[in-house]
Amino acid sequence: MGNTVSAAELIATNIVHAEAAAAAPALPKGHPPIGDAGKMSYGGGAAANPPPECPMHNKDRAAAAVQKEKPVLVSECPVKHDDSDINPLNMMPPMNQNPAPDQPFALPKDRQVSSIPKVTEDGRQEFWVYPSQQMFWNAMLRKGWRWQKDDLKPKDMDDIIKIHNANNEQAWQEVLKWEALHARECGNPKLKSFGGKATEYSPRARFRSWLGYELPFDRHDWIVDRCGKDVRYIIDYYDGGMVDDKYKFALLDVRPAMDSPENVWDRMKVCYMRWKFQLESKVKELTN
């Protein structure tokens, strides 16, 4: 992305959810096969002309799956609206693949299947599907964003989509780390719904700001289905600086909401484990 701040980075800071994948996660059981065309790994890099979504699939197969098989829920950047046609599961309007009247260039309409399983009424294994570049453009316009001459180029939109998708993939991997505490109870958690709360800072984010730290530029609340039990997760997105070649952009603070005794206990256990690990590491340094 270079050493200068591109238009894609500036827009991503204000619009895109954050994510910084530490490693490429394994695909979940039952996940559709990954194609070679337009391939990009979760945490790392992109091949030439990849489709604007993650994980990578053959774009013809993905498009056919969306159009001919079962309906999918689109994990575009969720935002609250008062419109009656908003999907309550992702807080998004009906998908719009039509070019905007004043759009300066054509955008791809390919969509990509994510690694994030979703809840289905009949129990079938399905995964959330990311928006195409065209759908993302239309979503930004709906939020009030307006492009200016030479403000964006096709490459910028491609980068924005990759950042957006990488953000969501990393958020899910962080959720799975917490869900590992309940692996015996449920080995197949799924994302049920989510919504953006960019203007509603979490108590933890506010407390950090009182200590002099920056406020997050975005917040999401994800509802995870733990084999029939709804668990709410809070995700705060912090500016992580420049976008690198792996499309790492922001720092995530992912944790279960303190709205149940079980979630509070999970956070206490993780806090203890972190404290214990840090203490053991310091002891080793002193004794070596």
TrEMBL record:
Protein's UniProt keywords contain rRNA-binding: no
Reactions catalysed: holo-[cytochrome c] = apo-[cytochrome c] + heme b
Main location: mitochondrion
InterPro entries on file: Holocyt_c/c1_synthase
Keyword tRNA-binding: no
The enzyme's E.C. designation: 4.4.1.17
Keyword entries, A-Z: Heme, Iron, Lyase, Membrane, Metal-binding, Mitochondrion, Mitochondrion inner membrane
One of the Pfam families matching this protein, by short name: Cyto_heme_lyase
Source superkingdom: Eukaryota
Subcellular location(s) per record: Mitochondrion inner membrane
Family the UniProt entry places it in: Belongs to the cytochrome c-type heme lyase family.
Known role: Lyase that catalyzes the covalent linking of the heme group to the cytochrome C apoprotein to produce the mature functional cytochrome.
Protein name: Holocytochrome c-type synthase
Species this protein is from: Aedes albopictus
